[in-house]
Design goal:
Layout (H helix, E strand, L loop, with lengths): L13 E2 L2 E2 L3 E4 L6 H10 L4 E4 L4 H8 L3 E4 L16 H5 L4 E4 L1 H9 L3 E4 L5 E9 L12 E8 L1 E5 L5 E6 L6 E4 L4 E4 L11 H12 L12 H12 L4 E5 L4 H14 L3 E7 L7 H12 L3 E6 L1 H8 L5 H20 L5 E5 L4 H5 L28 E3 L7 H10 L4 H4 L19 H20 L8 E15 L2 E14 L7 E2 L4 H14 L3 E7 L12
Parallel strand pairs: 3-4, 3-5, 5-6, 6-13, 14-15, 14-17, 15-16, 17-18, 20-22
Antiparallel strand pairs: 1-2, 7-10, 8-9, 8-11, 11-12, 12-13, 19-20, 20-21
Length: about 525
């Protein structure tokens, strides 16, 4: 079987030592690396991510059916630019290079990469096909792709053919079909590339011949076994339970693995939504009979946040106090040497350099990268390699109720990152009420099933209003409604006008301190889903 007909493995095998086959994604520092892996899993194909330094080891251990090289922020001619293990291109496994990955293939095989004299190409670009290829099957002769690069290939390696070009980019796509090496200067993984999903499917399923047998909802037993092996027969786990999808699924997994040796800690930090604490106590204490320790730390968090307006400082403070609370609770348990968290793939990619790679930090996350060295606890993160919808599928497999599994994400720092400016109980109270009204109205019309997140944001901006023939001077509230598959990208959504009218009227009439309601119509990128 040739490289272009399914690689040397001939499909995906599964062994008890771990997942084999599938697609290995090499992370060269792009913010979209996890999105590449996510797109592959959407096809039902297993994928894993590694960094350039570990590629050789991962190739031997995983025996991938295909390899994808991600984009990245460097230039291939930089002295410290990450390189590719030569055995990847010599292994006879189909390879797809994206952006930096394409330039790296060209550079290492004798082509030429130079700074683009036309300047940086970023955003939507019209691409024209110039040759037929199985990689571009079903792609229109002219289509829109998403570019993000400042260099361009001025000479392809021997044996490569140009497949497509854009006005500023002479080689937008290329291939060496005989060697099974394909390359794209644009990003097919983002939704802005018109035929991006088709191109990835062409490569993964048709060219590489990967087997579509990845089912995230069926990995519960493997996850339970991994937890049992890590914790052992006597170890105890302290797990931060927020009541959200991630921590809840993690808690149920750990509870299934070790039972009463799991101790959940629910921290009431004063930054919760309306009814949050009561809902967690009812479900996990009364229904699941877990050991849930509720810590009332409202005054502690709010006193630490007093006068702080910088969003990163807010996150750092919340993360620090959060860990302090855990340390204090863990100190009461002699065998609690493990800290459980519901960390997901997107948490990692937006917080630290994933897998030791060169990814730029977007914003800190209180569950990732903020643990002090003296914590003396080993992490238990059973969801760290999963995306949100995969966690939901796993939650359904575990029997969690739909009201929890399908619940919208809520940030670790809570309402602190939706209360712009100083965080105080006086400002949190109207925000909490406005958010509750928004959720009630959306869910009453059953509009929430197609939405990723919907919430209110309080701005430290006062404006003049008129109520009962009297002048008011109060703060503004913003409604944020987005759809997404994995939080890596998101589009704003417009609610029906009558629903917006009712939300606005109820907030202005029922919530003291707010006299103006606005609508956020920004997508991600360039904005983020949360305001801070």
């Amino acid at each position: 079987m040739s490289a272009g007909q399914g690689g040397q493995n001939g499909g995906d095998a599964r062994t008890e030592g771990g997942m084999k086959g599938g697609v290995l994604v090499v992370d060269f520092g792009t913010q979209y690396c996890q999105l590449i892996a996510r797109r592959i899993r959407e096809m039902g194909v297993y994928s894993r991510i590694t960094v350039p330094e570990r590629t050789g080891m991962m190739m031997a251990a995983m025996q991938p059916t295909a390899v994808i090289l991600s984009g990245g922020p460097r230039s291939v001619y930089d002295a410290d630019a990450p390189k590719l293990d030569p055995q990847v291109l010599a292994a006879g496994v189909p390879v797809l290079g994206i952006c930096y990955g394409m330039q790296l293939i060209s550079d290492q095989l004798g082509g030429k990469v130079e700074p683009s004299s036309e300047g940086r190409e970023y955003g939507r670009t019209n691409m024209n096909l110039v040759a037929e290829s199985p990689l571009l099957k079903g792609v229109s002769a002219e289509s829109v792709v998403w570019m993000s690069h400042g260099d361009k290939i001025t000479a392809l390696p021997e044996g490569f053919e140009i497949l497509a070009r854009s006005e500023p980019c002479p080689a937008a796509a290329a291939e060496n079909r005989e060697r099974g090496i394909y390359a794209l200067q644009f990003h097919p993984e983002v939704s802005h590339s018109e035929f991006g999903a088709e191109i990835l499917r062409n490569f993964v399923l048709d060219i590489a011949g990967c087997s579509a047998d990845w089912e995230p909802g069926c990995i519960a037993e493997r996850k339970v076994a991994e937890i049992q092996k890590l914790v052992g027969e006597s170890g105890e786990v302290v797990l931060g339970l927020s009541g959200g999808v991630d921590s809840s699924v993690a808690a149920v997994l750990v509870h299934r693995a070790i039972g009463k040796r799991l101790h959940c800690v629910f921290v009431d930090n004063g930054l919760l939504r309306k009814g949050e604490r009561e809902g967690v106590e009812s479900l996990f204490c009364d229904d699941y009979h877990m050991d849930v320790r509720v810590v009332d730390a409202r005054e502690r968090f709010l006193s630490e946040l007093a006068g702080v307006t910088d969003p990163e400082k807010k996150r750092k403070i919340i993360g620090r106090v959060f860990v302090e609370v855990f340390k204090e609770e863990a100190a009461t348990l002699d065998n609690a040497h493990f800290l459980g968290q519901g960390t997901l793939y997107p948490d990692v990619i937006e917080s630290v350099a994933a897998h030791g790679g060169a990814t730029a930090t977007i914003k800190s996350h209180h569950n990732v990268g903020g643990l002090p060295k003296d914590l003396n606890m080993q992490l238990v993160e059973p969801l760290r390699d999963l995306f949100k919808d995969e966690v939901r599928a796993l939650g359904r497999e575990l029997g969690l109720p739909p009201s929890l599994v399908d619940r919208q994400p809520f940030p670790g720092p809570g309402l602190a990152v939706r209360c712009l400016g100083e965080v105080s109980e006086e400002r949190l109270t109207p925000l909490r009420e406005a958010d509750a009204i928004m959720r009630e109205e959306i869910e009453a019309k059953s509009l929430h099933s197609n939405l990723w997140q919907y919430f209110a944001v309080l701005l430290p901006v006062q404006s003049v209003g008129v109520m009962g023939d009297k002048r008011t001077y109060e703060e503004a509230c913003v409604l944020r409604v987005v759809s997404s598959q994995d939080a890596m990208t998101a589009d704003w959504e417009l609610l029906p006008v009558d629903v917006l009218q009712r939300i606005s009227n109820r907030i202005i009439n029922q919530v003291s301190g707010i006299n103006r309601v606005c609508l956020d119509i920004s997508s991600k990128p360039p904005a983020t889903i949360e305001w801070e």
